Amino acid sequence: MTTDLSPFIPLDTASHSPLYRQIYDSIRRSILNGEFASRTRLPATRQLAEQLGVSRMTVVNAYDQLFAEGYLEGKAGSGTFVASRLPEEYLHTPKAEKVTPKRPARSIDLSGYGRHLRDNLSVIQQNHAPTIVVPFQHGAIAIDEFPFDIWSKIAQRHLKYSIRDLSLYGDPAGYLPLRRAIAQHLRSSRGVVCDEGQVIITAGTQQAVFLISRVLLSSGDSVWFEDPGHTSASDILYAAGAKIEYVPVDEEGFDLNGAIKSAGKAKLVYVTPSRQFPLGMTMSLQRRLNLLEWASENDAWIIEDDYDSEFRYSGRPLPALQGLDRHSRVLYVGTFSKTVFPGLRLGCVVVPPDLVDLFAAARALTDLHSPVTDQMILAEFIADGHFERHVRRMRTLYRERQSILISEVEKRLAGFLDIEKSDAGMHLIGWPKGVSDVTISAKAAELGIRIAPVSRYAANKLERGGLMLGYTAFDERQIKEGVKTLAKVVAGASHFTFD
């Protein structure tokens, strides 16, 4: 006999929290409070969806999260049950909880950085939340396609034969064979002009931007930033005390002339020239050359964020801006979160030769160095050719998935959503007609799909909102189901009717 969960799951359609998350929270809370005992049988997803008046996919997403965290167990065809064994430290009942007297909120004298975090806490938490991989989450990779068997064999070999090196503190700039492998790869595939000495290993792009802000920016310095642009980077620069000047992009990317007219001067410029985030255009060669000349003449720095340039589906990846730099004004930032896997937390910043020692020192004072084991594995993974082979395979797979997405959108959403093929990247922009991208995004979240509105990444009001449709992490079935769900969202948010 299954349990009727509807009394335990109050749904608030006006809440900013997605419906699947409300279901997840309610069931998890009931398990932890002892209301649902171990081995309690839960309704099938279709049955619970009928009880609550929501789509089955919404319940499936909630159950999947509970299964992943160990709260539920069961097999297809045999039912879904509360896990028979739960960590005792997580179990609590209202009777066992101690009542703690309320204390008056204390006044804490925070630093300027701490005050920034406090005043922008909700925005920072939203911009830096853990990724939930549901259609059409952008920036997510096809994790099931990664060659973990090869990665594991390399890891086992180092754990067996390199134990002495793994046990000691490493170089703050990074494991030298990894720096050498990265430099070789960047020279051959991205046209970056560097040697291994200029490569500083970081814990991804965010730490690279953090190090740059600490070494090169003082409080009050102006930073020109693409609009729309990458909010996680602007958060870091703003927290460092920088004055962010948002510069609208056009079909040629970052508009230097517009920046000079509207903002005057800047100490640093943050750009994504190979593929602008989130809109996807490439900065024209003339604008690249003009930006480099301006930086040299004004003693300014350029951060080149090369976040997904490896995934170019027509011809070779475009050469990096850094490769055109003759005056050492560009700091090239790369990450393995999109090409290997995000949990690895490894990336790099390529700095001018006269800044190497300063950045190594800053890295040492941040967290000394990235885990040596992971650096060793990645170094061998790249040097033995596994990395390049994997990227080539993903280019083919992602190109196919992009085609499926376009085909499904044109079939089910023609007349509402404009979408075009792209020669690169991990997401496409769908341009809705007559409906706010924020409205569509919120409605989609209620049905268990995640579509970021371009408006979320813009400081100034856009002429037209867009929807970021990630496709790289999803197979054909998931893409088709996701577009079908999106069509339902659209039908409820506009006057259009879809089959």
Provide tags for this entry.
single chain, 499 residues, alpha/beta, Arc Repressor Mutant, subunit A, Aspartate Aminotransferase, domain 2, Aspartate Aminotransferase, domain 1, 17 helices
Descriptive overview:
The two termini are 37 Å apart. 41% of the residues lie in helices and 13% in strands. By secondary structure, the chain is α/β, with parallel strands linked by helices. The chain folds into three domains: 6-90, Arc Repressor Mutant, subunit A; 167-384, Aspartate Aminotransferase, domain 2 (3-Layer(aba) Sandwich), CATH 3.40.640.10; 389-493, Alpha-Beta Complex (Aspartate Aminotransferase, domain 1).
What is the gist of this entry?
This protein is α/β, with parallel strands linked by helices and 499 residues long. Helix content is 41%, strand content 13%.
What amount of the residues lies in strands? Answer: 5-15%
What is the number of strand segments? Answer: 15
Name the structural class. alpha/beta
Tell me, rounded to a whole number, the average pLDDT. 87
Radius of gyration: 25 Å
End-to-end gap: 37 Å
CATH superfamily of the largest domain: Type I PLP-dependent aspartate aminotransferase-like (Major domain)
Tell the overall outline. globular
Main sheet attributes: strand count, strand direction, barrel closure: 8 strands, mixed
Query: Regarding quaternary structure, how should these chains be classified?
Result: single chain
